[in-house]
Structures are given as C-alpha cells and as structure tokens.
Amino acid sequence: MADDIDFLIIGGGAAGIGAARRLAALGASPLDVEALDRIGGRAHTIEARGQRLDLGCEWLHSGDRNVWTGIAEDLGFRVDRRDPVWGEQFRDLGFPAADQAAAGRAFDAWAERLIRSPPASDRSSDALEPNGEWNGFIAAMTGFISGAAPERLSAEDYVAYERAATEANWRLPAGYGTLVAASLPASVAVRTDTRVEAIDLAARGVVVVTSRGTLRARAVIVAVPTSVLADGAIRLPPEVDPWRVAAAALPLGRDEKVFLEIIGDAPFEDETYVLGNPRTARTGGHYIRPLGAPVIECFLGGGAADVLDDGPDAGFAFAVDEIVALFGSDARRSLRPLAVSNWSQIATIGGAYSYALPGHAGARALLAKPFDDCLFFAGEATHPFDFTTAHGAHDSGVRAADEAFASASR
Ligand SMILES: Cc1cc2nc3c(=O)[nH]c(=O)nc-3n(C[C@H](O)[C@H](O)[C@H](O)COP(=O)(O)OP(=O)(O)OC[C@H]3O[C@@H](n4cnc5c(N)ncnc54)[C@H](O)[C@@H]3O)c2cc1C
Q1: Are residues 154 and 9 in the same domain?
Q2: Predicted confidence (pLDDT) per residue in 59-90, tens digit
Q3: Quick check: CB of 226 below 6 Å from ligand 1?
Q4: For strand 255-262 and strand 295-301, is the pairing parallel, antiparallel, or unpaired?
Q5: Is residue 330 part of a domain?
Q6: Is the Cβ atom of 59 under 6 angstroms away from ligand 1?
Q7: How many domains does the structure of the chain reveal?
C-alpha cells in the first residue's frame, strides 16, 4: 500500500539535505529517499589508510558567503581558512615563471573577452585566440572548473559563476562529505538503497514508484543530478518533458580525483602544487600534502579524466608519471596508490557537475521552475550562479523547500 507523505525528497545529496533541513525548520516531517547506501551524493568523505579524503566536494568555495561555513561552525567542525596554492607551480618545475605569467595573461584575456565581447555563438571556445599558444592551458582550466572543454561551454553560463564567486576558498579538515551528512537533522526520515523509478501525477499529489514500493506525496522535491533526469532513469509524466529537455542542456562535466600516498623520504613539501603539463588539456593538477597530509591529490578534469576509462590503475599510473616527469624518477619510490573516485561510473550520479551547452544558459531557470504546485526541482544545476557547488546545491534545496511549503499551505 502507498504511504501518504506531505513532502517527499528524491535524492540525499547537498540539495536534498538542504531541502530537508529547511522543511524540518518549518516544522514539517519530510521523507528523503536516496538510491545509494549512503547520503551525501557528490559530497563524500572516505578514510583510506588513516587519511580523510573528499572524493567529491572539498573546497568551501566563496567560503565567506557559503552557507556550509556557518553550518560547519554551528556543528563544531573546524574551518581551515588558508588560501589554496593551486596556480603556484612549486619551484616553477616544468613551467618557467615567464610562461606561468604568459599563460595567466592568456587565460585572463580569454575570460575578459567572454564578459566584454561574448561570442555571438555563446560558445566559449569562440573567444579563444585562433591557434593561441596557451589554448591547451585554458582548456585544462575549464576542465578543472567546468569538467568540459571550452567548445562545450556556454559563455554566458561560465561568466555567471565567475562573476558571483568570491576569492575565499576554505577547507574542512574533517571532510566536506562528513559535514554534509552530519547536517541532516535527526528528525528527518531517510530511506537509503531506495531508487525512484517513476513519478506519476495523481488527482491530488504525486505517486512515486521506488525500488522498494510505491509512495504517495502531496509535494515532491526532485533533487537528483541532471544526468538522471535527462537519460530517463526516472520515468517522468509527459507534461514534465520540458524539465527533462532543460536537464539535457545541462550535462555533467567530468572530473575525478586520484589520491597517492606519500611514503618514506620524499621531495614533497606541505601545501604545494604542480600542474602536470601546462601546454595540454590532458593533464592533472596535483595538490601536494594538502593540510600537511602525506598525500598527493591529483585532479583530472574534462578529457584528462578519460584516463580512468582504463580503470583506476591507469589513473594512478598517469598521475605518478606526471609527478615523476617533474620531480625526477626517485619520486616514484615515494608514491603508492591510495584511492580514486569514479563519479561518472555511478549510475545515479553520472559525472561531476553541470555546465550549460552553448545557447542554453537559460536552462537553469527552466529546470528550477516548479511543475503544477506538486513537483519542485533542486540540485546544483538549478542554481542561477552557484551551480557546480555544494553550497549552490544546498541553497537550491532551500528554495525548493520554500516553494513546496508555500504551495502546501495554500
Ligand atoms: C570531483 C568533484 C569535486 C568537486 N569539488 C567541489 C568543491 O571543491 N566545492 C564544491 O562546492 N563543490 C564541488 N563539487 C561539486 C559538488 O560536490 C556538487 O555540486 C554537489 O555536491 C551536488 O549536490 P546535489 O545534491 O545537487 O547532487 P548530488 O550530490 O549528486 O545528490 C543527488 C543524489 O540523488 C541520488 N539519486 C539519483 N537518482 C536517484 C533515484 N532515481 N532515486 C533516488 N535517489 C537518486 C544520487 O544517488 C545522489 O545521492 C565537486 C564534485 C566532484 C564530482
């Protein structure tokens, strides 16, 4: 028999949790259903050989206005406000200072063109200098920032994020994933291992078919990644097709992390950074001993993450080879595989974070609209400018919760 629920939230990531926190604060008792065996979604901290590692979100971007900063401090989590060192090539290894300055200028000039003279095509690559010396570098950066090549990115969308972000990028030594999971109020009911298969409209409310039975709710907050909506993994009523189309215009980029453990004598200093190869998009950003941990965190963005198609060992080998090319062959002895993410392989996630295809910056607003006072949409992709982030996801959940609560009170 179908359960009768006032507010059902689909997805237990930062957006679903943001919605649950808001509804609980408003005195409601939502149910959150999550396909995985854990909550947090793309916020996931693991422990590997004694090291806490964030496989997904890690940085409190725009930390000075990021809702998670306050939640962390309320819950007793320490916030580390040190500036990141990405962009500072350790000892200029493989990237002479003059080249770093030239690459930085080329990137800034490209970003400036996106704002001042945006391409009519809205395609970010159309603002690149033809055959520009640093186009590979710029593509590596968009791989890290958006998970995709400039050819795939809407200029308008890219700029919306950049305009709104602040310079504060902070960290949580206990892990961003730990915080997001811990922030769910104990009063909120959660069913993990419960995958939603279909959403049907009923005379009053919504019927949700899950892998563990059918639920009936007055209002449903859909807080799943755009990949899930776009590929039909949840069967939606035909009337909701415009939301599926909007989600398809906001695909998830690809970003993965490869973690190496540092053992024994090693030439690696705390809180340092190297870009593997500054002249190609197919490279990693290697954060060395983050917060002093004996770890190198290799960030593979866009096409560079494709190395993982051949499995985790290919990712470890790629990361180690890039580091050895800069630090010398002795460095190899000090490195051993620790952990690797596989976001694009998780069926209910399917990638890293959303970007808008050229001409589709407006898809975020379309996806964020409620349907018929019974379906409400949240998730990082629905935020007008803090998309791609855990705080944008949270705030989108709050927005959807307020909409659902207001409609239920009418
Ligand atoms: C490698 C990487 C690094 C990142 N770094 C940062 C960073 O430093 N800072 C930052 O702010 N952000 C970062 N992000 C982005 C951030 O993690 C996400 O934007 C945010 O966590 C997304 O939250 P969400 O709730 O929108 O989606 P998700 O976290 O994906 O949650 C959606 C949930 O819905 C569930 N679901 C899907 N389908 C179903 C179904 N049919 N039934 C039930 N449940 C379903 C999924 O399993 C998932 O748990 C990073 C992401 C990645 C992958």
Answers
A1: no
A2: 999 999 999 999 999 999 999 999 999 999 99
A3: no
A4: antiparallel
A5: no
A6: yes
A7: 2
